[in-house]
Amino acid sequence: MTIDSKRAPRGQGRETLLGAAQRLIARDGANAVTVRGVAREAGLSIPLISYYFAGRAGLIEEAFDAHVSRVETLAERVTTTGRRGIEAGLRAVFADRSHVLVRHELHIEAARSGIYGVPFHRSRSAMSRIVSAGLHASGHSTETRRTARGAMAELESIAMTTAVEHSDDGLYTAAMIAYLGVTFGDVRGPSGPASSSKKSASGTHLCP
């Protein structure tokens, strides 16, 4: 195939298009994403999308896969980088508004189509590992999967509610970092915010 306009530097076009697709999924929802819109957002040509992804469907699938792969990488790092890696993982998963919205869209698409079932479960598994590591590092009991799943469900609910309340990325991030600081305060060490004495039903600390 001949790509005759708006070439990306070698090796960068694919990642640029995936990033653009993820931004549009977060902003407009997966169903609203178009090939033309992604090309415009990326500043690249439409033929590049066909070249890398064979069309819109392939682009959306790979955008979700790249999102899940990032979560899996973060989950792997929490076992090798200690408390710093745990904090980075929690912030990336819950305090990045675009990341949360892409994950929400993945959940919706998984409910609609079987092709997204596998990435959905991969995402949930990786997130559970990150949350479990955070609970363990902050002194919470993680004897059962239910504990981590309950905490994860609660954090997901808080993240979505906060995304509705704060359309500004900066305000959203600040609010979620505050929640995470209270929930997993001990992960950040002595200089981090003190943990609240109020607990949720899942046993994790939540902001008042």
UniProtKB/TrEMBL annotation:
Record Gene3D superfamilies: Tetracycline Repressor, domain 2 (1.10.357.10)
GO molecular function, one term: DNA-binding transcription factor activity
DNA-binding region: 34-53
Domain HTH tetR-type: residue ranges: 11-71
Pfam families: TetR_N (PF00440)
Keywords from the UniProt entry: DNA-binding, Transcription, Transcription regulation
Domain of life of the source: Bacteria
Protein name: TetR family transcriptional regulator
Taxonomic source organism: Williamsia herbipolensis
